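[Meeting: bench + compute handoff]

Bench side (C.D.) handed over the final construct sequence. Compute side (W.E.) agreed to return the predicted structure before the next meeting so the bench team could plan truncations. Sequence as handed over:
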Amino acid sequence: MKKKRLLYTTLSVILGSGLIFCTVLSKNHWKSATFKNVDIRFQYSDNQAVVVGSEVSPLIDEFLASQPDSSALSVPAFLLETSLEALPYVADAQVYWNLKESLVITIEAKQAKAKVYMNGQQFLLTQEHELIRAPKQTPLDLPIITGVKDSASAARAGGLLDQVIGSPAFTMDGLAQMAVTESSVVLIPQGYPHRILANTGKELAGDLRKLSAFYAAKPTQELEDIKSIDLRYKNQVVSTTR
């Protein structure tokens, strides 16, 4: 009995010592592990290549230059993520070590839903209705919004845009421009040379239903001859031809 107990004790000591040795060895290995490459990956929604590289690269270079060494475990990845997410075109950032000598930086760009012209400058309205300065080097085929005065009115215009493109009368590709005022909205469809006047309040949904029915009842040739369509009158559509 004593021999068995002594054997169990000896085995426990050996196994415990081995576990401690392996833990220390592993810890020392990962402490000394370094990354030799920086892998930057961009993710763009709906193929919108919003330019972020010109801002991202200098920030990453500056961050890495400020680190005392390239130890994988000592690099404060969360600080770099926070700095990247503060950039105007970045929606989300992730920084991690892939255990293969590479520091992986994944950047998700913000998605724009419309171009906004305000005070002689061009902006982008994101899906979250945030107004950001439009990058000069990135052409985007998006509806144009005019008539807004500030970021708050741009956000309200974004809500109107959602209603318009979500209606049976339009799609995102079918709307070229939208001009807003306090009480009305002017819509210019893609491919037709006419303008559409509608209300901006609760009546907008009904106006868009009237427009959809109007389009369905008119042949293409007649639509091409129309100059304007006014939906602001109750239960009727007023149109003028060229």
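W.E. noted at the follow-up: Residues 2-32 form the longest helix (31 residues). C.D. will use this when planning the next construct.
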